[in-house]
Amino acid sequence: MTMSELPSRAPVLFLSHGAPPLVDSTLWVDQLRALAGRLPRPRAILVVSAHWEAAPLTIGSTDSRTPLTYDFRGFDERFYRTTYDSPGAPDLAARIEALMPDGTPVAHDARRRLDHGAYVPLTVMYPDAQIPVLQVSLPTLEPEALLALGRRLAPLRDEGVLVIGSGFTTHGLPYLTDRRPDAAAPTWSAEFDAWAHECFAAGDVESLIDFRRRAPGMPYAHPTIEHFAPLFVALGAGDDPEQRPDEAIDGFWMGLAKRSVVLT
Length: 264
Fold this sequence. Notes:
It holds the Pfam family LigB. The protein is an alpha/beta fold and 264 residues long. It has one domain: LigB-like (Protocatechuate 4,5-dioxygenase, Chain B, 3-Layer(aba) Sandwich). The chain is built from eight helices and ten strands. It is globular and about 45 Å long.
C-alpha cells in the first residue's frame, strides 16, 4: 500500500525514543525511517514525552524560535547543537484546549518547546522539519487518567494529527552494568519486554495498567514510571485500547527494550 492509498485518519504511536546517541544506531535509524515511510504524512504532530511532567495539562510553545529543551547531560557537545525548527502549531494548541472537559484547567508554557523525547525521533522520521509539531505535558502518571486523556485527544486523528507517546519500554538506567549500545539485555529488561509483547498480542490493557504489580522485572525495568506512562495516552487515542497493535520496532539498545507500537 502506498502512502497515497493510506486512509487520511492518522495512526497513533508509542515510541521508545532513547537517549540522543540513539541516532548513531544504524539499526534504530533504519527501523524508525521504515516506520515513518509506512505512515500517511501527518498534517501536524502532537507529542507527549516522558521528559515533561506538569499538572495541569500544559501546552508548550507554538513559536518555532523557542529553543529546544536539551534535557540531558554528559553527552558529546554535538548533541547540544541539534536543531529541529519545525513550524509551531497554534491551531492545534487551541483544538487541544477545546477538547478538554469544561472546567478543566489547561496551562501554557511559552518557554518550553520540544525536549529530546520529541525531537530526537522526529529528526529521523521527518528530517525536513516541515510538519508543525506541538508538545504537551504528562499531567499525571496514573494509567487510567492518561487513557482518558488519550480518548480526549483521539478526534485530532481525523484532522490528520499524528499523536505520539514517547517513552521507553524499559528504562532501568540505575541497574545497567553494561552501557554499551550492543549490550545484552539484563534479565529484568528481557522479561518485562516479553511480558509487554504478550500483553499487546492479547489486548490485555488491564495488565498493562497494573504493570507495577503484574509485570516481571519490576521495579528494575521502571524504577520510576514516567517512561512507560506515555503508552497509555497512545492506547487511549487508539480506536480500541484492546486491539492488537503493530509492534513495529523491537530489540534492545544498551540493554533497554525499544519496543514501539502503532495503533490505528
